[in-house]
Amino acid sequence: NFGNEIQLVGYDLSPVEPLQAGDQFRLKLFWRAIGPATGSHKVSVQSYYGNGTMVAQKDALPVCDREPTTTWDLGETVIDIHDVTVNADAPPGRYPLYVGLYHSESGAPLPVLDTAGNPAGTQALIGEIEIGE
Which end of the chain offers a freer environment for a tag, N or C, measured as fewer CB atoms within 10 Å? Predict the structure, then answer.
């Protein structure tokens, strides 16, 4: 639940085998509008380690920059595909994969809410990617 506006109801990540530095992976996100939009929000897909060193990142409006969250109907499920490139200098390893939403003009993140409705950060950990030797 992102700010009682948008719910991430599922995702699909491919390929699942180890990636190489410079490879691209596809993340398909399934969003549902659960409340009125407070503005247009961008999706942020990030994988990083340690002190925040990025392994992969992509920020964009949903549905290939074509369907702002302000156009979603309440209850609508939106399929949102992101092709994300692993940094060319990414070292081998397993890295967490996060998704977040933020206001496209102000940059203010939508809070992630736990099942009780309490703030639980600004990103949802959805899985991990593996970068091979």
Answer: C
